[in-house]
Amino acid sequence: MNSFEVDLATSIQGGKSILILSLKGHLDAAAVPELEKKVSQLIEGGSDLLVFSFKAIDYVSSSGLGLLLAAHRRLERQGGRICLAEVSEEVLHIMDVLGFNRIIRIFPTVDSAVQAVVSG
Questions:
Q1: What are the pLDDT digits (tens) for 104-114?
Q2: Helices 32-44 & 62-77, crossing angle to 10 degrees?
Q3: Structural domains of the chain ordered from first start
Q4: CA–CA separation, 86 vs 55, rounded Å?
Q5: Is the pTM above the cut of 0.90?
Q6: What per-residue confidence (pLDDT) applies to 2?
């Protein structure tokens, strides 16, 4: 069984609070319920600017991508945003093939993703 972890950090930019979720492990069907619960709690708690760091993610399943899309749509309706950062070449290739990068913006660094999520 592969482990999955989420570490939270907050960045303040331009008076706005951005939550950075650093993901680690496999974002697969087994990990999705845990991440879905965490993201729902954050959104319900008023967080509307989220950056997901994929630096330590080596695999993303279709259910993991589905979770990110659902969170994106939910936040978009509320005026919030999601950006991804530090996505590995392998995972980025899958996202490109599926057109995922045309829906959710992907950046090379957390800092660039934070700037983008704040500026819209």
A1: 999 999 999 99
A2: 10
A3: 4-119 (3.30.750.24)
A4: 5
A5: yes
A6: 62
